[in-house]
Structure formats: C-alpha cells, structure tokens
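An example makes the point: we print one protein in full, the chain in one-letter code, the fold tokenised, without further comment:
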Amino acid sequence: MSRLHDLTADADVLAIELVGTLVVRDLCRPTDAFRLSQECFNADSGRYLATELAPIRMSAEAALRHEAERAGRSPSSVGLEAIYARVSDLLLLDPTTTASLVASELETERRLLRVDPVMLELCMGAVGRGAAVVAVGDTHLPAAFLGEVLSDAGATVPSDLLVSCETGTSITEGPLWEDLAGRFDGRSVVHVGTARRAQAAAGQHGIRTCLVPDALEEFRHQRGRGAALNGDIVFRHLGTDGTMLKNVHRSLLNGLVAHREVDGVPGDGGDGDLAVTASQVGFGALGPLMTAFVQWVHRAAIRSGCDRLHFAEADGAFLASAYRTWWGDQALATGPTGTEPAAGGGSAVVATGWEPAARWWGDGAGSRGATALQPTTRLCFAVGEDGGAPDCDVVTRGFIDARIEDERPLVSDLLERSRGFLERCLVAAPSASTTGAPSEGGDVDLVGVLQQGALEYLARFRRLTERMPSTVSIVDPHTACDPMVAALGSPTPRTETLVDRVRRAPAPPAPASQPGAPR
C-alpha cells in the first residue's frame, strides 16, 4: 500500500480501473455469476427457468460483441439490456420474464461485488490531497448500478464512472485515454489497475501507469499471498466443470481465498512466516472443508431426529466453535461450551471419528458425562471401512464415510495423505492461544492459527451467501474438500513445510476408556 501511495502521491488525477480493481467479485471466474443468477431467479422470482441460462447468456454476449466489432464499434460497448434482449429472442421469453432475469443478474452482482478496502483508501487519500478520481472500466454493467454498489459501501469517490457499455470505448483502446488526457490537459494523470493491456494503452497517451497484482492471477499462479495454496489445481477444475452448480460452489469457495488480505510477508521460513502460511492454509483449505462439515452436521442431526448436539471432549472445542460460527441463532442446542451435555431431547455426539474417538466417546470425567447422554446418533467427520465398534443402539453417520464405495477415495485422499496433519487441525489446539502467539515452548501455536483462519473463513462465507438460495450456500462436500486434498496431495513448498511441522506437533490426549467400553 505504501508503494501505491508513493507512486500516486504527485498525481492530479487518479484514473482507477473500476471492476477488478476498485470493485471486485468474490468469484474465481466472473462468468460463474450467470449460473448463480439463474439459481437466485428460480428461488426468488416466483418463476422457474429450466433451460440452462449461462451458456446461452455467454453465447448471446459473444455474438453481440462480434457484431459490434464488425460494425466498427468497440466489442466492450455491449450492455446488459442488449444481451438479455438477444437471450429473450433465443429462448422466446416474454418481456416480464426477461426483465426479471435482468433484475436477478443485477441483484446477484450486488451480492457478489464489494469495494476493495486498499483501493478505496488510495482513492480517499487522493481526494484528501485535492486530486480528482475517475473510475474507468470495461463492463456490461450500468454506471448507475456500479455507483450504487460504491454508495452502499460508503464510498463517495470517484467523481466520474466511465464504463465501456455507455461510453462505447474500452480501457484497452486509445480513444478513451486520448479523451481523458485531453480532458485533463496539463495535469498529471496516473492510471491504477490490474489489466496490462489497459496500462499499455494509457501509457501510449502520456498517462503514467501503476500495475497492481490481480488477486485471481496471484492465486492461480501461486504468487504473493497465493503462494501457500495450489490455485492452479482449482482453476483446472473450473475449466473442466463448465457451468455446473459444483463449479459455482468451487468459484465462490475459492474466490474468497484469492481476495483475502493476509498479514505478514514471507521471509526466511521462521515461525513468523509459518504462521502466515498456517493462516492461509487454515482459511483456504481447512475453512472450506469445515464449512461443508458443519452444514452436514446440522442436517444429519435433524434427519436423525436429534435436537441436541454434544461435541466430544477431545475433539469438540474447535468443532463446536465452527458449528456456532456458521449456524448462529439456528444452531441446535448444545451445552454451555459445546463440549458439555445439553439436557433433554434427542442427542447426537459429534467427533472426528478417528482413533480413539471412533472406538469410544470418552469416559464420564474426560468428556463431562458424554456417555451418560445415551446418544442416539454419532456424527463423525470420518468413518473407516470397518465402521468402528459395533453398537446396535447407536447409529453412526460419517461426513466422509469409507463404508460407502464412492467416498473411499476421498477418505484416502484426506486421511492417508494427511498422516496426522488433518487430525491435529480438527482437535483442540495444544496451546490455549488461537492468535498465533508463541506458546510456552517458544513455538508459534500453528494449530491454533490454522483453526482461527478456518473460523474466519466460515464467517466470511456465511456473510457472502446468507441472502443466496440454499442450493448455493449449502456446498457440495467433495468440492469443499478439494482445497485440502490439493494442499495434502500437491503441496506448495511453504505448505509442505507447515504440514510437516504440524504432523510433528504433540498429539491431543486420548480420552480414557471405561471398563466394558468397546475397543
């Protein structure tokens, strides 16, 4: 940020790229918004569009852009209304349905778009020293709508919004910059943005440029803040799944990861740098996995006829925190800390499912009376092929269940490759700290940092999807596990160092078994 301030400090005019720099979408691919828009339309409009909209919507826009180019206009001059007029012709839609689809896409974009706080601070600083701020961008979205997005975020800058679908000129072409240079003749203009072609076009007209990293490209190519996670694998999956709903899940899950601001700068590989990596892995790999797990726990408990949850002592502190972070006021009743029993009703015990928890759920002292609850259901993170100890009175369900043939590869990918890393992530941290502070032995509590990153992810994903239909907010478990599978199976060098360190961390204490407990 200080570099940006230094490079723009003497600018009389700040021309900032609008969509992608000042305003970003928490998606890996902008086109995934089209499938998401259809999900919202079907859930909210009172109508149902069975035909898959996204490929038709993209084809209509591509055709209009080609037609504009053949007519001597900029392809970027195509706007949203024109796109949906073509979609309406292709699908034989009535005007009311067409208008509802337009409104649905705009509302979906409103949910996804947010103002980048770093870029907003840069703009506010420019205004504070008397500079003008102009936003420029190639987009099909109307300037008035984008102005509302900025206003909703409390941003009173920039003074002008120049969008290609209204100006007819692209930021990658000369006429826009020629007009801008002439408008501010004699004044120092600096363009800030992520598009390299726009930087080149601006530079040809005497406008100084400042290229800022594109978060999605940084994540995809494992640079900078994306160096701890294998974004290349994420984007390969995105390329093969087309417009399937699981692609929307993957795009949403990982878009948050790509745009997250991470404190700290990688350095010499000491504990401080490992804490940065742990925070990234906790947010970007453990976070999506835990999102799907706590969603499953809630639904599995209800389907099993349970209205109480008890999180087993050795596993429960973190699992209970994750559950409450997602479900909030909708959470099923638990004891005061989650690891204490809740009176009355049908109770389900929640634990990781690994040894020794899969064999026994602790004794009266170690788990504060879990066995006295006489639970009707066990909800395990993972269940092995042998199904654990036989117990005719208690049903065992697994989020990842190797007793089910098509889930055996996932058990293998997560648990065999983990070799203790994931198990330690999901149980109580060895230190009381969850902030990354040094423990008594002087080492940073990496497990606590991993857990804290995951809880932060849960909170952010909940905020992002809270107004979206359940088909979007309730994620596919296999897709949610992908980032952790990638981190374990194809770790970056920084992640490999972290995984090895956590694997060697002290194991959580095993609960003592009671006489007569199944072994």
